[in-house]
Amino acid sequence: MVQVKHRIRYPPFESAKLIAEHIPVVEYNFEVDGPVIPPFKLGNSDSWHVERTIEGDYEIDTRYHGEVPQIIEKQRTGWYLLPHPIHAKARNFINIAVMILLACLFYLFTTPLQSSIGIPTFGTGKIRLGFIDYIGTLRRKKKDRLFWELTLTRDGYAKQVSRHFNEKYLPAVGVWEKRIKVLYCTRHTFINALFQKNVDENIIKSVVGHEKEFTMKHYGGEPFSSERLHREIAKVTYSGIKWERLKLL
Asked: What is the DSSP track for 130-187?
């Protein structure tokens, strides 16, 4: 019968952040009758360590080889007493990664505020598709119309366009006001802007779909080319409008 003592000051997960001397050593005494595991010591007494001592004469258990039991040696070179180099680097990297993640979240959270006071932001824009790409996307979704959300009624699609604009889009961008700011207001604003740029009245009528005063339409043909219409429309500018606020996903 021999007296065996185990002394241990085992490190927690983040051992580098703790002072080993401030943590008490745990001791456990027991007796063994017969062959025993040989004594050993890993680490230093003033730091993290595992120690096994035996009092009196004893017989070594032949099932264990080497000076240190295999299970203790493997744990020591693994995650605990002496972390694996990869684990040690990973733990150091975690702190940096968390700091970067928090900084990115703070940047994204404050992006609307930065934009509202004129501070440029980067990497937060929405993905924009070209018109041809958008058509391809609709085809892959088996949509047979460009504005597939609009349903056909007795009066066609016009009423649905107006309702969609007034009831969904304008409230979403925060410029809707019942019976005051509606779809038709944008048409009036555009016509007024064309007049202020001295655009020919017949061109304005052609752009907005009004009847023309001259008789060329009776001879079959459009008097204004698309290039001419584009040049006249391009004269209109709207200063002071924050276009980013008017874009929806």
From this structure: -HHHHHHHHHHTT--STTTTSPPBTTBSHHHHHHHIIIIIHHHHT--BTTTB-HHHHH
